[in-house]
Amino acid sequence: MHIVGIIGPYFSGGNLRKIEHNIANAQYVMQAIANRFAENRLVGFFCPHSHTARFNVLAQAPEPYYHLLDETIYDRACEGFVALPEWPHSSGAKRDVERAMAQGRPVFTLASYDDGDVEALLDELDEWARALDESC
Fold first, then answer.
1. What is the reported pTM?
2. CATH of span 2-130
3. In this structure, which of 27, 62, 91, 115 has its CB flanked by the most CB atoms within 10 Å?
4. pLDDT tens track for 22-38
């Protein structure tokens, strides 16, 4: 299984409604990946949006703690990344995309949450993961 990290906005200035919206968008993509690759187990995912969802309210750890946690998991587990449509509007997502690119890891950009764009992303992930398997 090849793991992709899901990158997108989360905190949105602390607006709880926007945070819930960001979590829902990330979960939509995670569900699409899970549904597509459940049987062949070719691609899996890690997403901080669900891993530490609502910890901005539930825990007292400062934001830098979560940045380091995300980076550590990304570095140890993720071979590629999916950038959600709003990623350019998030300083954290921009940092994560720049970091992935600096490490030479592929970043697949989801154009929109429209069914056709999600399906195109899934096809791209499928092709990427199969190519990795063939090169081994």
1. 0.91
2. 3.40.50.450
3. 27
4. 999 999 999 999 999 99
